[in-house]
Amino acid sequence: MWTSWGKIQHIDLPKVPFSPSVLNSSGDHLAIGNLRSYGDSCLINPGTAISMLNYDFFLEWNSQSGRLRVCGGVLLADILQRCVPDGWFLPVVPGTKFVTVGGAIANDIHGKNQHKVGNFGHFVLELELLRSDGEAIKCSPNQNASLFYATIGGLGLTGIILNACVQMIPIRSSMIDTEIVRFNGLHEFFELSANSLNDDYSVAWIDCVTQSHGRAQARGHYIRGRHAQSGTLVSHSIGHRRNVPFEFPGFMLNRATIGFFNTVYYHRQFFKKRSLTQHYDPFFYPLDSVLNWNRIYGKRGLYQYQCVIPLGGRKALQEILDCISVSGQASFLSVLKTFGTIPSLGMLSFPTEGITLCLDFANRGQSTLALFDRLDDILRQVGGRLYPAKDSRMSSLDFKTGYPQWQSFLQYKDPSITSCFWKRVMGYTPPKMKPGPDAFPNRSGHL
Amino acid sequence: MIKTVVVMGATSAIATAILRQLVGADAYRVVLLGRRPEPLQLLKQDLLIRGAKIAEMIVSDMGDSRGAGLIVQEVLSHVTTIDILLISYGELGHIDARTNARETDRLLQVNFTSTAALLSGFLPLFENQRHGHIVVISSVAGDRGRQSNYIYGAAKGGLSVFLEGLRHHCFRFGVHVLTVKPGFISTPMTAHLPKGVLWSTPEAIAPLIINAIFSNQSEIYVPGFWRWIMGGVRLLPEWLFHRSRL
């Protein structure tokens, strides 16, 4: 029995370790990595789940040029372990280092530097794809380019990502010069965002529970950082990590406890602004220090709701925060991040210019899903979209309108590869609100 | 000073995890033995990037004891001293082997006879060099014969006794023999089995094994709680044991 990070849906079929002949068996297949996606994009049932974790070999490392070629199952943590002492860092890192390179490409992941450099896919120089017809195809922006752009952010559906060549970025120190600024209200957040465009990394933690005058107060911490210019080059330690040993009872995370946590967290910083120099590990991966942190959400698991709101949707952002705050469904870890102007490469890549909001919700069944439906309604008005890697419930219609290139993507999809996510968003689900011609105004500026 | 480690069954998940941690921490020359050239080549290149000073590979089938002499010769044509000899190949076998004479014979060959032959073949080298670690992956399955896998268990049990004797003999030569008894570990060998809370990973047990090597321990259960589980299984009275499906 296994599941994705959100623990919503469980699969009772064995995982098969990767071997070159693995796609020869009949039925559907899906290559899976370290299962850090929250929803069902890394699940398959019925079908064969091919675990890539045993296919984790380094193939080439050039510490002069920073070019790295690794197999699809290599974890980002292993790459940092090897390359940081040589003065190179991953060009894009997500909120955990325990994802595979294959997963990073398949979801075209973004990080705190999205506004400056784009996504992981922008740094993939070449990749090799194993198709179910037995062919291994090399793709890059210059070779089989369409297949390359289908595979970047292609949710692993275009074939098995055997290996990839990634351009690393040079660093002089493994430390990050960090500045944390408290903000109160979205206007302050936007002001900080505008002033932080030159920082390498920026992200905000936001309190979605506390209200003032019947609206979400939207207070939080704006965190920005850049690689320190001098210092030592030390990779993260692989020592003991704190563990959440069992699933917490469901009632432990409620509005009161989360509200309390958020208030304490907000006031942890007394001064408006605080500067520190910290190692990249706590800066990028604060949650990696706690093993199995998803267990605090209890047996029923958690949903993550991550959307991007295109430029000009500031009002919608406040509306979404109000809606959450009023619903009483508290979100523990809420993150705001500005996406930049660099267009994403993949046909199904998530990032697009605007603001992304990422929220964790304990699974409370129908009431949680009803809240998401209300959030979807707001999002639809401004032409936003949801992140497939985090999703386990978006409607087929919302996917198809949010990712208008899905039809061109179909011709590159491997016929014997699918996922629970893909079957769900391709299937027809009746729209809750009949979409008239004006229901989705202004779809331009989307990709 | 570059140390030499020779690994039989190098592409096994446990050996790979141990090798990666060794070469990342110190200067090693690795000699890798395995059956299939492609994964062996991948691992060789991988270890070089992860810090191995020299990496060599020898393609051979260690599961047949008749070839043991040749394999020992081949290895000794590459190296003159061995600091760590790690034997980590093995095969779980299918439950149907219980009624299949040839398969029973083969599983005993792969998991016991061939390993014993190799160890005897390498012994003169260790007696001469008067140092070194011999590390062999046995199994908790050898602690008591159980209906679910007693052929594999018998082979590993025999191996553990062999190693006990070898350790006794090697003590006066200053050579260290470590018996490793893993419990449930998620590897390609066990991919088909349903997983539960008792399962661990090669990456988690590798540092425990490395620590046991350099602190000259005799026998180690990994993870450590298996010592208590198997102690309990051994203590079960027959009337109760026979009613279980262990």
How is this structure best summarized?
The complex is a heterodimer of chains A (447) and B (246). Chain A is of the alpha+beta class and 447 residues long.
Task: Write up this protein.
- The complex is a heterodimer of chains A (447) and B (246).
- Helix content of chain A is 23%, strand content 26%.
- With 447 residues, chain A is of the alpha+beta class.
- Chain A has a domain of 220 residues: 2-Layer Sandwich (Alpha-Beta Plaits).
- Chain A is globular.
- In chain B, 47% of the residues lie in helices and 16% in strands.
- With 246 residues, chain B is of the alpha/beta class.
- The termini of chain B are far apart.
- The longest helix of chain B has 29 residues.
- In chain B, helix 1 links the parallel strand 1 and strand 2.
- The interface between A and B is medium-sized, with 17 and 16 residues.
CATH architecture label of chain B? 3-Layer(aba) Sandwich
Let me know the average pLDDT of chain A.
90
Q: Give the DSSP E fraction of chain B (strand runs of 2 or more residues).
A: 15-25%
Beta strand count of chain B: 7
The CATH architecture term of the domain at 175-394 in chain A is: 2-Layer Sandwich
Strand content of chain A: 25-35%
> Can you identify the CATH class of the domain at 175-394 in chain A?
Alpha Beta
The tally of domains of chain B stands at: 1
Shape of chain B: globular
Oligomer: heterodimer
CATH superfamily of chain B: NAD(P)-binding Rossmann-like Domain
Overall helicity of chain B: 40-55%
Which structural category do the helix and sheet elements of chain A fall into?
Answer: alpha+beta
Euclidean distance between termini CA atoms of chain A: 38 Å
Structural class of chain B: alpha/beta
**Amount of helix of chain A:** 10-25%
Could you tell me the radius of gyration of chain B in angstroms? Answer: 18 Å
